[in-house]
Amino acid sequence: MGEGEAEEGSEKGVSIRFVSSGAAGGPRPSKPPATELASPPFGDKTGTVQRNRGGGFHRTGGSAVVPALMVIVARNAKLPTPAIKLATWNVNGIRARQGEVQQWIERERPDVVCLQEIKAESNQVPPALCEMEGYWCYWHGGKGYSGVGLHVSKEIAPQRPLFVHPAFDCENRIVVTEVAGITIGSVYVPNGGRDFAAKMRFLEALDEYAASFQTEVAGEVRQLVLCGDMNVARSDLDVHPKERKPRAIGQLPEERALIERILSRGLVDLGRTLDPNNDRLFTWWAPWRNLRQRNIGWRLDYVFVSISLAARATACFVQKEVGTSDHAPVLARFR
Q1: How far apart are alpha carbons 233 and 252 in whole angstroms?
Q2: Among residues 36, 54, 73, which one has the least CA distance to residue 178?
Q3: Considering 135, 188, 209, 302, which one is annotated as catalytic?
Q4: 135, 138, 159, 194 - which has most CB atoms within 10 Å?
Q5: Tens digits of per-residue pLDDT, 220-248?
Q6: DSSP assigned state of 238
Q7: What's the pTM value of the predicted model, to 2 decimals?
């Protein structure tokens, strides 16, 4: 959702099992020199590109457009697909949740961590998180507003992956990388309260981006994961009855139609697929009247995955009791 306070809690996750075929791991590339630079933002105009302390980029001039998506596909298309654990969390301020995020990552050890609403530039991220031990870290944010992070375990990616931005990125709302042949994006859709038209443009662009993955590259269909705060409750089932408001932003028919269009691009809403009838499956609660403790909330945080990857899913669950953000983390596991 947007900014706000939240409730205290302790960890408690319930996994939903889905048995299916799996895929084995295999050899991984050797570790590159420490000086290797990742690609600059996707579609950005670049001259001299330098990485800052948190893994972000700034440029000093130039005009050439870098086709970064083509670069990461060419570099990683043939990698094996090992078992993988993904996690996404809108932390509502990384500086306010530093200890919680550290403890959560140390406890869960996800292979890929997607964070949203970090509300910090890379040089404002606490040092212990800026370059977490055992992870390739990328921070993409601004002072006090919006921002995303995407962090990849060195166990699954011994070589630093490329972190890129689709051309429609605005207000530091999306970063994408490729891990083991899977393109993974950390996404923070605008709330829409201040500029609803901008929210709709972002969702439309996200739909076009997802549609691009339906085209084969070198005879292979690419796998896509979009994790994060989509700021839309997909259906009334995803909103507590006391919170259902037909004209509320986040529940509007036109927003929901765009989410369905994104999913029609060969993607699966993993949380709902594995728990189809749960009418108390929420990820965000307004920070008042003990709504979180009473579980009167909305489901705004998702793991959208390609159909072929969904067939490898073994679990997807919300950790309702974790942390003091107004959102809860969502974790997914794949064979």
Answers
A1: 9
A2: 73
A3: 188
A4: 138
A5: 778 999 999 999 999 999 999 999 999 99
A6: G
A7: 0.78
Is residue 229 flagged as an active site residue? Answer: yes
Q: What are the structure tokens assigned to 3, written together?
A: 């900014």
Question: Do residues 206 and 173 touch, judged by C-beta distance below 8 A?
Answer: no
Considering 44, 111, 229, 326, which one is annotated as catalytic?
229
Domain 64-334 belongs to what architecture? 4-Layer Sandwich (3.60)
Q: Tell me the CA distances in angstroms from 103 to 53, 162, 256, one per residue in order.
A: 22, 26, 34
C-alpha to C-alpha distance for 288 and 275, rounded to whole angstroms: 27
pLDDT digits (tens, 9 = 90+) for 275-312: 999 999 999 999 999 999 999 999 999 999 999 999 99
Contact (CB, 8 A) for 86 and 177: no
Q: How far is CA 102 from the centre of its chain?
A: 17
10 Å CB burial of residue 317 (0-12, 13-18, 19+) is buried
Q: Are 270 and 311 in contact (CB under 8 A)?
A: no
Q: Which residue's structure tokens are 């891990």? A: 179
Phi, psi of 149 (to 5 degrees): -130, 150
Q: CA–CA separation, 295 vs 300, rounded Å?
A: 14
β pairing state of 182-188 and 174-179: antiparallel
Whether 138 sits among the annotated catalytic residues: the reply is no
Amino acid at 63: S
